[in-house]
Amino acid sequence: xxxxxxIDPGTGSMIFSLFIGIAAAASFALNALWVKLKFVFxxxxxxxxxxxxxxxxxxxxxxxxxxxxxxxxxxEFEKRQIPLVYWTAYSDDPVLSADYKFVKAEFIGEGNKGxxxxxxLKADILLATTPGLDVYQWKRSKNVKWYVxxxxxxxxxxxxxxxxxxxxxxxVCSGENQVRWVKKVESxxxxxxxxxxxxxxxxxxEMFAKKQAQSNNNKNEVxxxxxxxxxxxxxxxxxxxxxxxxxxxxxxxxxxVRPHPQSTVVEKGLLQELSSAFSDNPNLTWNYDNDNFDVxxxxxxxxxxxxxxxxxxxxxxxxPCIYADTNFDPSPYDVYWSDDIRWSIKILPDIGCPLKxxxxxxxxxxxxxxxxxxxxxxxxxxxxxxxxxxxxxxxxKITDYLINKxxxxxxxxxxxxxxxxxx
Length: 423
What we know:
The chain is an alpha/beta fold. The protein has two domains: 43-201 and 392-422, Rossmann fold (3-Layer(aba) Sandwich); 216-387, Glycogen Phosphorylase B (Rossmann fold, 3-Layer(aba) Sandwich), CATH 3.40.50.2000. 43% of the residues lie in helices and 14% in strands. Strands 3-2-1-4-5-6-7 form a seven-stranded parallel beta sheet. Residues 1-17 and 32-51 have low confidence and may be disordered.
């Protein structure tokens, strides 16, 4: 029996959107009336001070984990002494404790509270990694001139939920692979083309710089194999379980198993069963670190399935991978609009080798073959060129773009005012 006061999440979201829409319409109508009155009483002249409370540059982050994407951009604004506002939906976001003079951080609340503030925002340029603008609760504010999306992946963006990027004005892409995909989606849907600028990936730049700073002399005496799968029934641990782990251990190499974070939530029984089964094997280590840099760095080969760790591992560390057969349901994602195979699937033969259950009895030869392959090293370099531009300078490129775009918007706004004054 349902309570009359109960509202399901979908209905609640719709009611919230309706409320925000009505409130926004009323707000903008009143603002338009006020501007007209000012115009009349000023003798037909609109002063430039009208937009003094407009934020020139603002970053919005829906999760604290995206600080690794934004903080080098914040550093760049700080270095150039350009004011920047940073809104976060997390009360313990690292930006809130960062020592900045020109970057002003603010916790705006989670969920609908944060979206309500965003929907009435007055700014020139907003930069965000959050998809779904103008699709769900987060609506475009009529007082924001330019919305810019920054991806958190080197993939082509076909894995975004449908319409996730449609209502942005621009995307600062990591590489040409993303440009090709976005243009294809725009063509298929016949939507307004976005401004696509290839800038690189600040997050991957930092990981690459950290990797470059390490000593190259510390090579493993015995190869270290990292098993880092995704989660669910199609993932390695669920599909192959004990037999797979045993096959890798039988080689005699060091093995690190790093379960997907979601596995620790929904597959606790499976992880306990597997860890108990191999608790006496000194060559097996289970890793649950929050940051995966160290475990990626110390391994010589990655074995995974459809986990996104493939691109981080191969592109940043230049090491090959072995990938299991993938099962991917495209229906909720933008890739569903295309008959083509996903870019991230197409490139797999260039950066690694497939793993089949029939390979388990010959696992050592399979792994050694991949470790010694020179063609895979060439393939990794080729794919890196396509998906990751401006390595080491992406934060500067993105900041340059934002500043140049802001100058263009200001010039355009001044020209519009001059035309109004002439009339």
